[in-house]
Amino acid sequence: MVYQNTGSAITPTLTIKHAxxxxxxxxxxxxxxxxxxxxxxxxxxxxxxxxFTAHVSSGNGVEVTLDFGSALNIASKQAITTNWDLRxxxxxxxxxxxxxxxxxxxxxMTEMQINQRYFQTSYDNIAPGTAAVPAGxxxxxxxxxxxxxxxxxxxxxxxxxxxxxxxxxxxTSGVCxxxxxxSDVTVTLGYGGQNSGYFYSNSATGGHxxxxxxxxxxEL
Length: 220
Hints:
Number of helices: 1
Number of strands: 17
Largest sheet: 6 strands, antiparallel
């Protein structure tokens, strides 16, 4: 769905590319090149749709670009898009689609569960490795020289993940934070499966409190 306020109808163009290598956009190939979509009236919502044949390498990543042209080259003019829906639609001929099926919009909670199969983090909604952010971290007191952080996953991951530990204070990877002595301590991944895992260190000090953030990545 498109809404624009330029004062006259505009016809956006659509470009679709796929990455030549998985999740790597240093090189890409166009599958649809600047084709004209439906005309969008000013001051009204317009549904635009286009059906294309996906490339066999679309699993590497797909980029969809809408170009609204020079009519938006004025600060007071804008275009709003919503209800994006990119999916397999059997039985529909390629090209402009005047009567597309209704968008399949999953709930936020459903999307979260699906996304967490590929990536999880102990952080709140901030970049992993952000320094001085203890909220949500794992915290434990050392028993002798051993400290162990057991990670409980929010969702079963797609595959065994790449697991990274971060200091809650410096944001440095591969370490935890000794809150008692205000220093980072190197940790080792003991296990990182699809449902659980743990980090440990044998260089702890008995009775000290240790803090750790982590990320789990099982992306394609």
